[in-house]
Design brief:
two-stranded antiparallel ribbon, 55% helix, mainly alpha
Length: 248
Amino acid sequence: MGRSSALLLLLSLSLASSAYAAAHNVIRGAQPEQIEKYQPVNGKFTCFDGSKSIDFNQVNDNFCDCPDSSDEPGTSACPNGVFYCRNKGHEQKLLSTSFVDDGVCDCCDGTDELSGCKNTCIEKNSAKRDALRAKIDEYRASLEKKAQYAASAAGVRENIKQRHQNVDGDIAATEQELQKLAADKKKLEEETEVKRAEHKKKQAELAAKRKAEREAAAAKAAEEAAAAAKAAEEQAAASSAGEEQAAA
């Protein structure tokens, strides 16, 4: 199989892989294959690992009850939770629940953020499919031209050779472009991670500062109370001594 034929096959497979199985997701963040596990039984929900049962209204209540994090698929309360992006019209996606409601739109349908995210799945999928179809048409046309040139008279063989080189050059250029896009994507992901880390660091520093301020205020209040008590004792002692002298 030639390089052009191989690329055509890969592009076709990429189009096919973008289809997804529809599922009615009634619990925020729950994966389609787990929906049945989120149906209440006598008003109760059982953790996936079977470790405990809780009231069903405690599911997605922003408090981690289950050791396996299964009761909070739609909040960031549990450390090991998994959030499901349905992304209808595009590609489904799984992400850590630590990214839920963190101010960054990770799902193209915006479901990982309660507000501020626009649904861009249709646009993304449409653009991706159009680009892939355009490339398939382009390389299909190139293959047809190559077949035509192969059947031509000996007088045009040099022209056919040149055409082949052009097509191979296009493939190489396309591969370079794909590598560049992958590098750009990785860079954006790294920048996003840095921003998240900076945000968490600032939150931790602020919490530590507030704790220190509260502790300092408490210590100062304790010192003032102790000083007041001591002054009261001294005043009482002085008063008692005065009364004794007066009595003498």
